[in-house]
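ok new one. same drill as before - structure tokens go in, u give me an amino acid for every spot. 245 of them this time. try not to just spam alanines like last time pls lmao
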């Protein structure tokens, strides 16, 4: 966005200001340039002054797109209410509650990573749900997902590694005891177990049964993660046979 604007403040002074805003190579910021041309009437004639400012502008939080994670929504799955003790009388009530909590939190420009089991073995139900949910949606495939012929996913993956701010993440539907980059600070996010497994240090379950039915941000997740602290092994734990001489 750029252009000149007249900001004259007196008859003796004519001032034009040029503003330009362009994208920065850094995330969540922009380069702002301002130039002013000032012509002032003096006793000896006219004076001319040109000023240029260039600085980096960081928008406030409300201007930033956000990234969320979720898993195991099981849209259209009646029995999940009983299996996971969800507080609903019908599957329709459950689905509507998840639509509401998702759309209340997620804006159209935000991105949501769904770590599997979006809808219960139904491409039709998955399509119906996708059409009602805000944001850009990326699927990490779970054991109940039917995505062939379904439109609305930005991309579909079996597993995925990505960078969010200063954090490197490894996404998979299934929880792992060891994962790529674990010893180098990579955080593992998963689903599948519906909160029935204590997370390994450095990992977290992002399923809706853990987080009250809503997608969750990385900032929220980090508040509950027990960090993985690498320690040198001083003992061998699993040995069925001794080394032969």
């Amino acid at each position: 966005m750029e252009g000149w604007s007249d900001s004259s403040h007196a008859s003796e002074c004519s001032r034009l200001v040029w503003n330009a805003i362009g994208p920065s190579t850094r995330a969540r910021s922009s380069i702002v340039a301002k130039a002013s041309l000032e012509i002032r009437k003096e006793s000896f004639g006219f004076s001319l002054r040109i000023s240029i400012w260039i600085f980096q502008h960081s928008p406030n939080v409300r201007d930033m797109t956000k990234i969320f994670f979720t898993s195991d929504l099981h849209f259209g799955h009646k029995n999940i209410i009983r299996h996971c003790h969800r507080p609903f009388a019908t599957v329709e009530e459950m689905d509507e509650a998840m639509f509401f909590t998702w759309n209340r939190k997620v804006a159209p420009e935000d991105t949501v990573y769904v770590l599997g089991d979006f809808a219960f073995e139904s491409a039709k139900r998955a399509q119906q749900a996708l059409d009602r949910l805000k944001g850009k949606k990326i699927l990490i495939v779970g054991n109940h997902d039917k995505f062939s012929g379904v439109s609305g996913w930005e991309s579909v993956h079996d597993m995925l590694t990505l960078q969010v701010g200063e954090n490197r993440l490894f996404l998979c539907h299934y929880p792992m005891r060891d994962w790529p980059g674990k010893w180098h600070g990579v955080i593992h996010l998963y689903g599948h177990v519906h909160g029935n497994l204590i997370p390994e240090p450095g990992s977290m379950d992002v399923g809706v049964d853990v987080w009250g039915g809503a997608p969750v941000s990385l900032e929220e997740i980090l508040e509950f993660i027990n960090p993985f602290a690498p320690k040198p092994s001083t003992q061998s734990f699993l040995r069925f046979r001794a080394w032969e001489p």
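The CA atoms of residues 127 and 150 lie 6 Å apart. and btw The longest helix spans residues 91-105.
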